[in-house]
Amino acid sequence: MQKSVRKALDRHRRIVGATIAIAVTCLSIGCAEILLRSVLGLGHPVLYDSSAVYGFRPLPNQQQRRRYGVQLAFNNLGLRAEHDFDNDPKGKVLFLGDSVTYGGSYIDNRQLFSYLAVQGLSHYESGNAGVNGWGVENIFGLVVERPFLPAEIYVITLMEQDFYRGLVRCQGTPFSNVSPRSALVELWWAFCYSQNEKRHRGWTAFASAQETSYVVEKAARRLKEMQAFLRERGFEYLLFITPTRDQVLGNRPKDPLVQQMLERYGLAPVYIVDRLTDYGLSETAKHGLFHDNAHLEKAGHALWARVIRKELERLLCQPGRTSGSVEIVSP
Q: Structural domain tally of the chain?
């Protein structure tokens, strides 16, 4: 009798223990899900399309709250912009580039250099068509081959590594065109991507100098073709090269191959690193411009906007320009 009672108590304890363990596990998963959603904004990522022509870009009409409550808003054309764009390109400035232009999920739309650079230019508004991971071929595919022409001024901001990327597609990137079932699933996808990346080395590790030169030259040629394409249609075009933190700190020179190919095709981009000497930045201030070696913090976006704005003002005030009147107001 006592033995059977002990067995029953042991079985009861095991059941209670298992129930508590399951409850604690479920509670932990629930808390982790809530934390990942509320703090990091996981579970509802920005969704992208997939194109044979330009690779991929954000789908239109999205509003996502991501890291630490940062609001990402995309208009009817898939641009990070304050308003939808109508069919008239007049009075619109389109910014194109990679993840530096896009700004990341830690920067609000109104803190991007694409937004700040046009503030105070009356009768003008901007849209940000920057896409994480894009190279020159992606931009060319969208603007020329698509063609995507919603604005009268096109501002292209590139990192030097964009000349080496070719046409980047959504597959093989950490970005999604299907929504995860939960924040934990999105976190798992990110972990799997980071581990999978360890299997690969970049193509430049296997390429000859001739092959590398061909790829960079092709990118420069695409930029020249796009410049001609836009100007033939009466649109304006500005090209900027955004530096890395190492370059701003003076620890790394400009890429000589990229410079050579730009000169070969008669392209004269504004190297932002050259313009920063006008601002007398301390070493601490230079570090504060960057989120990492390539991407910008709010201070970086604000300063890049000042550099770009000066070029926009110079462009808009050219004698004989036929667009609508422009009143430049201090932002």
A: 1
The reported pLDDT for the residue numbered 37 is 67
Integer angstrom CA distances of residue 167 from 53, 142, 218, 280: 9, 11, 11, 38
Q: Which residue has the tokens 């000859």?
A: 208
Q: Are strands 236-241 and 153-158 parallel, antiparallel or unpaired?
A: parallel
What domain range includes position 308? Answer: 62-316
- Determine the Cα–Cα distance for residues 185 and 178; give it in Å rounded to an integer: 12
pLDDT the model gives residue 1 = 58
Return the pLDDT at 326: 43
Please give the DSSP secondary-structure letter assigned to residue 170: S
What element of type H or E holds 10?
Answer: helix 2-38
Q: Is 242 within a domain?
A: yes
Q: What is the pLDDT of residue 134?
A: 98
8 A C-beta contact, residue 173 and residue 132: yes
CATH number for the domain that contains residue 230: 3.40.50.1110
Closest by Cα among 325, 294, 287, 328 to 311: 328
How far apart are the C-alpha atoms of 115 and 97, rounded to whole Å?
Answer: 14
**Beta carbons of 298 and 107 less than 8 angstroms apart:** yes
The order of strands in the sheet holding 270-271 is 125-128, 92-97, 153-158, 236-241, 270-271
Question: Does some domain include residue 301?
Answer: yes
pLDDT, position 320? 62
Question: Over the chain (331 residues), what is each successive 10-residue block's mean pLDDT?
Answer: 63 73 73 67 85 97 77 94 95 98 92 95 95 97 98 98 96 85 80 85 91 97 98 97 98 98 98 96 97 97 98 86 46 46
Count of C-beta atoms within a 10 Å radius of residue 192: 11
Residues 140 and 54: their CA atoms lie apart, in Å, by 7
The answer to whether position 274 is within a domain reads yes
**Residue 8's pLDDT is what?**
62
- Distance (Å, whole) CA 317 – CA 186: 48
Residue 331 lies in a domain: no
Predicted pLDDT at 21? 74
Q: Give the integer Cα–Cα distance in Å for 329 and 21.
A: 64
**Residue 128 DSSP SS3:** strand
Residue 142's alpha-carbon distances to 37, 182, 241, in angstroms, are 33, 32, 19
